[in-house]
Amino acid sequence: MSETSTAHQLDHLVIAARSLDEGVAWCKATLGVVPGPGGKHPLFGTHNRLLQLACDGAPNAYLEIIAINPEVAPTRAAPCKRWFDLDDPAMRNALAEQGPQFIHWVARVPDLQQALAACRTQGIDRGAAILASRPTPQGLLEWQISVREDGQRLFGGCLPTLIQWGDTHPATSMPRSGLRLLRLSAMHPEAEALTSAIDAMGLQGITVTQGAAQLQAVLETPKGLVTLGSSIPSHSTPT
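RE: above sequence
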């Protein structure tokens, strides 16, 4: 990836799994590494495992394996859905039939409200800024993140969710994993609208081209070069 601003940059890649056990097994088989510890997200009823991800221009990038936590219900008031389309039937069917997949990316911004306002100038409802947190051995992690009430990713997952971290970033305590992100790219039939939205938010580091909706990441791993891609359906319209 090319150098990008340390203020508006890739935060993490999202790998969705039907369960964390399936996600861990996928990670070992596909990337040749075992994911580190993560945590639980009471607001959305999910939990995760994390891996540091070396990346030029994004020193705190990481990879997240996320799944619905079957032991808890989301505390976010109904009828709001879980983030990343995890409640969507198409997503659930794809994860059940095809296994864990790369579905989305999250971009870090210094001012979430300003970035969301930039989305609205493009006619895009990226969702409200929600305060979230989870406990860790190092203390409470707190952040603001953009999540729509319907939980949709938008543009086939190619338009990033936006995050603004509090005083602590989780990647600062992650050991090296042996993974490096070499390239992040997206294809979409509405490539011009997607590019305009990404530019309006001040984001860099992703290549957008015309085509069927797909997000792709090329990683250097202990098993060699691995290309992750997904085309799980989601709403492609900007609103």
